[in-house]
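tokens incoming
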């Protein structure tokens, strides 16, 4: 009986010790990777680039979905609490903010502070990722938090953040060089998603609507934009993939000017193309539509 109790006690002690050690180890996915949950595509892109083979990244916003309108199922809300790291932008998606408040995940990166959000005409402009230098700063923020979750791979995360910064710096240089001759040009967009891009490269953004793409422009605003287009000699109005082009196209037809697509990269429509490639497409659209020579 004594030997039986001793074996039982020893087994219990071993199990308790194993449980204690497990509780101290970083949480891992089924394949041993760190589970990262991003709220929408640009943050998903950064997390994947920084984490590499050490992470499994998923997004709360499905491909081709409008992130402004995100609604989360109960299982999606639970996933916020189960992820090893959550990367989001506070104030951008109410459903994500509410899920984080409800689930209180241990490791969270709120990119709002690192991105240095600034104001638009009716609210803070969330579209910081359209300035590559701001996205690079967020990359280092993600690397720091991944290192806290998974310290064994901290050096790799830091190295990958440096590599991403180098690629984003190259992109920034391309934009600056190719848009030099467009300094001061008027950029008319369907909604004010391109303020950071415009500020970075010396353009003047004029949004037909404000930060919220779902708010229809007033007749007064349409008259104002019409006057700006005529006075500035604008030849192209830019609309987006995920928002109806009807208002922009109608205004362009009335004014006799062209239209072109400029992707705010909020939702990932073409999953075969990544952030850098889409930004390259945007640069081509800008140099053509703004008549940069």
């Amino acid at each position: 009986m004594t030997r039986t109790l001793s074996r039982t006690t020893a087994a219990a002690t071993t199990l308790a010790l194993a449980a204690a050690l497990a509780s101290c180890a970083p949480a891992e996915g089924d394949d041993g990777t760190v589970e990262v949950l991003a709220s929408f595509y640009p943050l998903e892109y950064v997390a994947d680039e920084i984490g590499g083979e050490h992470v499994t990244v998923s997004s709360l916003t499905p491909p081709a979905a409008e992130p402004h309108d995100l609604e989360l199922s109960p299982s999606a809300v639970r996933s916020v609490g189960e992820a090893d790291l959550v990367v989001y932008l506070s104030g951008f998606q109410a459903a994500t903010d509410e899920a984080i408040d409800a689930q209180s995940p241990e490791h969270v990166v709120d990119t709002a502070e690192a991105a240095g959000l600034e104001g638009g005409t009716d609210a803070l402009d969330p579209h910081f990722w359209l300035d590559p230098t701001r996205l690079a700063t967020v990359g280092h923020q993600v690397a720091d938090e991944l290192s806290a979750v998974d310290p064994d791979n901290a050096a790799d995360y830091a190295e990958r953040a440096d590599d991403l910064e180098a690629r984003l710096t190259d992109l920034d240089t391309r934009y600056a060089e190719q848009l030099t001759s467009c300094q001061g040009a008027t950029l008319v967009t369907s909604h004010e998603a391109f303020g950071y891009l415009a500020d970075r490269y010396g353009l003047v953004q004029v949004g037909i609507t404000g930060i919220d793409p779902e708010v229809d422009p007033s007749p007064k605003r349409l008259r104002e934009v019409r006057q700006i287009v005529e006075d500035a000699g604008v030849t192209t109005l830019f609309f987006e993939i995920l928002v109806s082009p009807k208002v922009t196209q109608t205004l362009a037809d009335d004014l006799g000017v062209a239209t072109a697509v400029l992707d705010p990269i909020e939702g990932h429509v073409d999953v075969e193309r990544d952030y850098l490639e889409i930004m390259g497409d945007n640069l081509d659209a800008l140099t053509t539509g703004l008549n940069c020579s």
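note: Residues 1 and 7 are 10 Å apart (CA to CA).
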